[in-house]
Amino acid sequence: MEVSFYGGAGEVGRSSIEVFGDKKHLLLDCGIKLGAETEVPQINDALFARSKNIVITHAHLDHIGYLPHLFERGQSPALYATKPTFALMELLLDDYWRISGSFSKKTVKRVMNAGRIIPFLKKVKEKHAPSFSLHNAGHILGSAMVEVFDGGGLIYTGDFRLREGRLMQGCERRMRAKTLIMEGTYGAKMDKLPSIRRASSDLANSVRRTLEGGGSVLIPSFAVGRGQEIMLVLEDYMRSGFLPAVPIYVDGMIRKANAIYSKYTDFLRPELHRRTNKSMDNPFESRFFFSPKKQNRAKMLEEPSIIISTSGMLSGGPALEYLRLMAGNKKNKLIFVGYQAEGTLGRRIQDGEKFVLLDGEECYISLDVESVHFSAHADHDDLVEFARGMRGLKKIFLVHGEEAKLHELMADLKNFEVIIPEISETFKV
Length: 429
What we know:
Layout: E1 2-7, E2 16-21, E3 24-28, H1 45-50, E4 53-55, H2 61-64, H3 67-72, E5 78-81, H4 83-100, H5 105-113, E6 115-117, E7 124-126, E8 129-136, E9 144-148, E10 154-156, E11 179-183, H6 196-212, E12 217-220, H7 226-239, E13 248-251, H8 254-263, H9 270-277, E14 289-290, H10 297-300, E15 306-309, H11 319-326, E16 333-336, H12 345-350, E17 355-358, E18 361-364, E19 368-371, H13 380-389, E20 395-399, H14 403-411, E21 417-419, E22 426-428
Parallel strand pairs: 3-4, 4-5, 5-6, 10-11, 11-20, 12-15, 12-16, 13-14, 13-15, 16-19, 20-21
Antiparallel strand pairs: 1-2, 1-22, 2-3, 7-8, 8-9, 9-10, 17-18
Helix pairs in contact: 4-5, 4-8
């Protein structure tokens, strides 16, 4: 069996890996890399045509974003993923279509119609693909690792989290395979992610200080995963009385994602599933949460409040209007709870830029700016622990990370043959 890397090698973005052998082909993810210019997998139509089956690990655009473009080019592969992944895919691809306009709404429907729902642990056998199954990855709702059974066994982690989070159980461990393709987003030795308890406490304390000082808090958030996690943290601390009972406004695409999370609670931690289905106490519909109307955004800020809104990097969404309304008041606070990519408005503000353009208006950032590190990935120590815990493992390919971080991770995996592939490279496994 062989493995080719068409994207996600030495970089974060455009994940796309092909596993093939004995005239059987399987593509693992098909994403894009967003930036000043969108980057796509380095794979031609002939190679795409031979991969009649694509497995999707989860619904983030860096793993699914090229699918509409692929279908627009005349390809029509079968797509395999969990049920919630397909639900989130439709939401995010529809949003991508509205923003980019680079493909049609009909194409999104064609992509969704190609979906084949696969539950965890079910072995899938297709004529033109090696057999495979999916395992819980603990990253976001429905996220999966892929186990390929041919060639002595191969595990592709996709994005994963080892530890239990507030929403998700940790990933499956101690799997058996000869080859591992593992993400290394936080592979550097200095990448030590705080526990969910520590991050939650830091966030609650930061929010409390601002509210007690008479200000409001804006938390830009990704719609899928992070938004729901932040909601649960704040609801928990407000329910306990630690935070004053001010309105928590949830805006942007987070609200649509909440409906999907509410529908598939069996993929969340058992406690959340029981709370939602047996106690009829849906945490995403708590009495503390409100859905604001666009015309009321300025009025909302007349009293201390908390706003959770897309987009997470301030690249669009209602968060930009809230920031414009809040930026000039020193009592207010902006809290980043996710990664801010180089060149984004969020990163510029995080790095200390004070004069920014918001809706064509130059604004001075007077409000307080803080960052609290939440993550749905494994950190350096978790990555090493996961690899060392596998059975029968011989070879590791490190992907989905900056090269410097991957090399630091490789240094702590000395008992294995470790390869950091480059784009378009092919290896025998």
